[in-house]
């Protein structure tokens, strides 16, 4: 199976999250890899949700090259699609469909490269593929993977197949996701003085957060931290004083401020009335450009580290941040065939030449890592 036909097959699995339903695609990928000599383990995540770990050439003392990607996709959205999101149609030298760029095209490239490299080369250091569920809401599958291992697992380096148009990226922001909840006292809306309006409390907190200064200098690669209120709900009906309101907070962090201090700052801004639940807490990802593995990837990708005219950092979050911490700060690069601008949009697509190119890049990295 070539990379285009495999991408089309992966796109045909509906893994829209929620609910995810990653089990069928995980077992398909696992069977394919098992047929080519990989040891395969399925990690249950939730009902109809499975994560996959596949290895080849990994021994007790190995520091394998780890590839990672996720099975789930965001919903297709409310904008109408001109192409079927689950067919993987090929037109205009591109493959179209939900997840082609983010990131089933990369999963296909990783599998094809790993299979082909394993046929022609002895994998001295070995390779490990970690394909996760439930990445889109905040790397929750990768976090469960990291929590599930209590012994020692090693990795020499990590490649994250998120969309970068096959250009190596060595940093991205961290994330703190929070839910803030306020309580009030209900009353008839014609007598608001009899109640306590929870929406007013929450709205005031949102206004304060919109002016929040994190007190950090700009990170050379990641810039400044950001904050966004993504969802706000409150009240039951038009003619009652609402006794409940809640909203979510998405903070993207840099190296300039400790997460504990950010949480303290946000809680002080929310006030004592707020009940705050932490949903996600993931540190930023960064590997120095001088790292030997990064220099190897630069060389294979044909980029000049002295003349890097492409973004070295990303604003979005990846499983790489979780796995880099889990694997004791192993050098990590984000490198995938998808187009970053195609993620989470209608008529998502990936260029065929990028898919083919990524297979060659991954194969060469595997070969040199095991050389």
Short description:
With about 375 residues, the chain is an alpha/beta fold.
Number of domains: 2
- Proportion of beta-strand residues: 15-25%
Query: How many DSSP helices?
Result: 9
Q: Fraction of residues in helices?
A: 25-40%
CATH superfamily placement of the largest domain: Zn peptidases
Write up what this structure looks like.
With 371 residues, the chain is of the alpha/beta class. It folds into two domains: 3-172 and 284-369, 3-Layer(aba) Sandwich (Aminopeptidase), CATH 3.40.630.10; 174-282, Alpha-Beta Plaits (2-Layer Sandwich). It has helices spanning 3-12, 23-35, 100-120, 140-148, 198-210, 259-270, 292-301, 319-326, 352-369, and strands at residues 39-46, 49-56, 65-70, 90-91, 94-96, 127-132, 157-160, 171-172, 174-183, 226-234, 244-253, 275-282, 285-286, 313-314, 332-334, 349-351. Strands 1-2-6-3-7-15 form a six-stranded mixed sheet, sandwiched between helices. Strands 10-11-9-12 form a four-stranded antiparallel sheet, covered by helices on one side. Strands 4-5-16 form a three-stranded antiparallel sheet. β4 (90-91) and β5 form a beta hairpin.
Descriptive labels:
single chain; 371 residues; alpha/beta; Aminopeptidase; Alpha-Beta Plaits; 2 domains; six-stranded mixed sheet; four-stranded antiparallel sheet; 9 helices; 31% helix; 23% strand; globular
């Amino acid at each position: 199976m070539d990379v285009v036909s495999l991408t089309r097959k992966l796109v045909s699995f509906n893994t829209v999250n929620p609910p995810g339903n990653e089990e069928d695609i995980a077992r398909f990928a696992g069977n394919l890899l098992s047929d080519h000599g990989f040891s395969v383990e399925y990690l249950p995540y939730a009902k109809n949700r499975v994560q996959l770990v596949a290895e080849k050439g990994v021994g007790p003392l190995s520091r394998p090259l780890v590839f990672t990607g996720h099975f789930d996709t965001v919903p297709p959205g409310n904008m109408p699609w001109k192409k079927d999101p689950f067919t993987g149609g090929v037109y205009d030298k591109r493959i179209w469909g939900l997840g082609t760029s983010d990131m089933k095209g990369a999963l296909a490239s990783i599998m094809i490269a790993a299979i082909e490299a394993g046929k022609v080369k002895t994998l001295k250091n070995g390779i490990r593929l970690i394909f996760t569920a439930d990445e889109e809401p905040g790397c929750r599958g990768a976090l469960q993977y990291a929590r599930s291992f209590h012994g020692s697992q090693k990795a020499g380096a990590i490649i994250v197949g998120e969309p970068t148009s096959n250009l190596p990226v060595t940093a991205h922001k961290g994330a703190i996701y929070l839910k803030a909840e306020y309580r009030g006292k209900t009353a008839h809306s014609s007598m608001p003085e009899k109640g306590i309006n929870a929406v007013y409390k929450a709205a005031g907190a949102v206004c304060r957060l919109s002016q929040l200064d994190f007190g950090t200098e700009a990170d050379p690669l990641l810039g400044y931290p950001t904050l966004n209120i993504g969802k706000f709900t409150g009240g039951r009906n038009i003619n009652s004083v609402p006794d409940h309101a809640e909203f979510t907070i998405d903070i993207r962090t840099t190296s300039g401020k400790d997460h504990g201090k950010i949480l303290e700052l946000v809680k002080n801004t929310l006030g004592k009335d707020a009940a705050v639940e932490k949903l996600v807490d993931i540190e930023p990802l960064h590997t120095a450009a001088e790292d030997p593995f990064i220099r190897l990837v630069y060389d294979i990708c044909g980029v000049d580290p002295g003349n890097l005219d492409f973004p070295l950092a990303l604003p979005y979050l990846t499983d790489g941040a979780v796995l880099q911490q889990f694997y004791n700060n192993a050098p990590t690069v984000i490198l995938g065939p998808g187009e970053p601008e195609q993620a989470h949009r209608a008529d998502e697509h990936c260029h065929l030449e990028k898919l083919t190119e990524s297979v060659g890049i991954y194969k060469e990295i595997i070969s040199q890592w095991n050389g």
